């Protein structure tokens, strides 16, 4: 490998061009390109067009691509610590989410390091709310509803609420609703807007349940092959991307909630009965998580609560 030659890196990401995460990553790529005077060009492939979401992490691990982004909690089958940011109501605003990321990052980075991966940055989605096609006053109204899940946590939550979960990648949401495969989902105002949810549903309950993060990782071997100056440029751009991404996410929350309402979706706070029901599910999931996550989980929660 000639590190002195201009290199091009392909970077798969799961979400579409309309999503702020993708826009942030395109700016990251642009920053690297500029800072290295074109010595490294990162080409972003959005919406799972190069590699499908479930394959992105292992593709970076195996060196099929040098860098990529994915939803961190998708790795919960490898270690529950990866999914601490999807426990309902553990950290449901930005300040708490930031604390939780600080508390969990060392363990997340260590686990990924063992797979030859280095964390570049992580950025949260806005707080997660419930989208439906009818009034929902309590969990009773959700019984038997088919539910779009995006990770194991949302699948568990749906089952505990008596719903019937199906995994659907976010670019496929409109199709899944249009064909009647699903009738409800929990996701951010951002995803509600990028999928034009007003075309196929009517209600948004602002439950502020958790802030799941996307993470961008690089293959360590590919990184080491770069000149030191290029490595430094990537790390500096990654630091900026993390700060910019969190700021974008914060300002998205209100703006995109308003867009939902402007397009005719009934935006409401959850009733106390609905909130109580979801809180109860959150407690069940947290207890189950702690049992599975063992000493690592206890350590992460301890660091978070301090
Ligand atoms: N959007 C992604 C994950 C969480 C979110 O807000 C999705 O719905 O797939």
Describe the structure.
- By secondary structure, the protein is of the alpha/beta class.
- It is 46% helix and 18% strand.
- The chain contains 9 helices and 11 strands.
- The strands form 3 sheets. The chain has a 6-stranded mixed sheet with strand order 7-6-8-5-9-11, with helices on both faces.
- The longest helix has 35 residues, at 228-262.
- The mean pLDDT is 97.
- Bound molecules: pyroglutamic acid.
User: Which H/E pattern describes the elements?
Assistant: EHEHEHEEEHEHEHEEHHEH
Strand content: 15-25%
Rg to the nearest angstrom? 19 Å
- How many runs of DSSP E, i.e. beta strands? 11
Percent of residues in helices comes to 40-55%
In short:
Helices cover 46% and strands 18% of the residues. It has helices at 20-35, 53-61, 94-113, 152-160, 173-178, 189-194, 220-224, 228-262, 272-305, and strands at 7-12, 40-45, 67-71, 117-124, 129-132, 146-149, 164-167, 184-187, 203-205, 213-219, 266-268. α3 (94-113) crosses α9.
Keywords:
306 residues; alpha/beta; 6-stranded mixed beta sheet; 3-stranded antiparallel beta sheet; 46% helix; globular; binds pyroglutamic acid
Detail the topology: elements first, then pairings.
Layout: E1 7-12, H1 20-35, E2 40-45, H2 53-61, E3 67-71, H3 94-113, E4 117-124, E5 129-132, E6 146-149, H4 152-160, E7 164-167, H5 173-178, E8 184-187, H6 189-194, E9 203-205, E10 213-219, H7 220-224, H8 228-262, E11 266-268, H9 272-305
Parallel strand pairs: 1-2, 6-7, 6-8, 9-11
Antiparallel strand pairs: 3-10, 4-10, 5-8, 5-9
């Amino acid at each position: 490998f000639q590190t002195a030659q201009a290199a091009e890196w392909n970077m798969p990401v799961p979400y579409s061009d309309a999503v702020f995460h993708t826009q942030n990553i395109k700016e990251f790529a642009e920053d690297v390109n500029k800072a290295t005077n074109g010595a490294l060009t990162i080409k972003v492939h959005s919406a799972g067009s190069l590699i499908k979401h479930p394959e992105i992490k292992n593709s970076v691990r195996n060196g099929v691509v040098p860098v990529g982004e994915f939803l961190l909690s998708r790795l919960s089958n490898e270690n529950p610590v990866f999914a601490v940011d999807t426990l309902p109501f553990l950290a449901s605003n930005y300040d708490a989410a930031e604390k939780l990321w600080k508390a969990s990052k060392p363990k997340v980075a260590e686990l990924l390091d063992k797979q030859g991966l280095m964390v570049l940055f992580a950025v949260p989605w806005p707080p997660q709310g419930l989208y439906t096609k009818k009034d929902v006053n309590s969990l009773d109204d959700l019984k038997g509803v088919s539910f779009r899940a995006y990770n194991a946590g949302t699948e568990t939550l749906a089952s505990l609420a008596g719903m019937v979960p199906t995994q659907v990648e976010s670019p496929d949401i409109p199709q899944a609703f249009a064909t009647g495969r699903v009738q409800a989902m929990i996701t951010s105002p951002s995803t509600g807007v990028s999928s034009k949810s007003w075309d196929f549903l009517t209600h948004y309950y602002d439950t502020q349940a958790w802030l799941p993060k996307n993470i961008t990782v690089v293959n360590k071997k590919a990184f080491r092959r770069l000149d030191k100056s290029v490595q430094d440029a990537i790390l500096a751009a990654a630091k900026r991307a993390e700060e910019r991404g969190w700021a974008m996410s914060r300002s998205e929350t209100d703006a995109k909630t308003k867009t939902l309402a402007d397009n005719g979706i009934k935006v409401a706070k959850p009733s106390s009965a609905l909130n109580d029901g979801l809180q109860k599910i959150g407690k069940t999931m947290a207890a189950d998580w702690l049992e599975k996550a063992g000493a690592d989980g206890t350590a992460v929660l301890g660091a978070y609560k301090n």
